[in-house]
Amino acid sequence: MPLQPSEGSVNVTRLSNGRAEGSFTINNVGVGTQFRPEASAHGRFSAKLFTP
Q1: Whole-number mean pLDDT of the chain?
Q2: What backbone torsions phi and psi does residue 33 show, to the nearest 5 degrees?
Q3: What backbone torsions phi and psi does residue 21 show, to the nearest 5 degrees?
Q4: Taking a C-beta distance cutoff of 8 angstroms, is the pair 41, 30 a contact?
Q5: Is 6 helix (H, G, I), strand (E, B) or coil?
Q6: Is the Cβ–Cβ distance between 22 and 44 less than 8 Å?
Q7: 9 within 8 A of 26, measured Cβ to Cβ
Q8: Angle, alpha carbons 40-46-49 (nearest 5°)
Q9: What is the mean pLDDT of residues 31-52?
């Protein structure tokens, strides 16, 4: 099976002081024999932004 991107979304709820916060959802998780169309993942994130 060729590689394909998972379906999903990212929702940024806060952007300030060089940080982004929000939530994400991923559907159809996995690659090759580990592909699971019934699987999904979701969660929250906080990331420091890097600007060169």
Answers
A1: 85
A2: -70, -10
A3: -130, 150
A4: no
A5: coil
A6: yes
A7: no
A8: 120
A9: 83
**Whole-angstrom Cα distance, residue 35 to residue 29?**
6
Q: Are 35 and 51 in contact (CB under 8 A)?
A: no
Give the single-character DSSP code of 1: -
**Any idea how long the chain is?**
52
pLDDT (tens digit, 9 = 90+) per residue, 19-37? 999 999 988 777 677 777 7
pLDDT at position 24 is 95
User: Domain boundaries in the chain?
Assistant: 7-48
DSSP 51: -
**With b meaning 16 or more CB within 10 Å and e meaning fewer, what string describes 6-23?**
eeeeeeeeeeeeeeeeee
